[in-house]
Amino acid sequence: MRQAAIYVQDVFCGILQEDEDGFHFQYDAGYLSAKDAMALSPTMPLSSEPYDKEMMFPVFDGLIPEGWLLDIASKSWKIDPRDRMALLLACCKDCIGDISVKPVGDE
User: Fold this and answer.
1) Would you state the torsion angle of the CA atoms of residues 19, 89, 105, 7, taken in this order, to the nearest 10 degrees?
2) Phi, psi values for residue 106, rounded to 5°
């Protein structure tokens, strides 16, 4: 199982994990109780219930590079371009926008 800590505007908001059943995201209870908590996307509103999906959630998949930049990233880090979690962990620590991704243990 691989896990990633998800941040919104540099504030920890939850954990994304991948296992044999797919992808799972759970907002952090402390984040949910914050008065200025923001949802990751309209399709993932703030909720204490976990989100489960067989494929990578679109909000995270959209952070992964595409085209020639994906080619460079996958060749440089020797990552299969179909391994979305590995690409997310390698390429999305400091993205443009509000969301950033860090391997669990690197926070």
Assistant:
1) -100
2) -95, -5
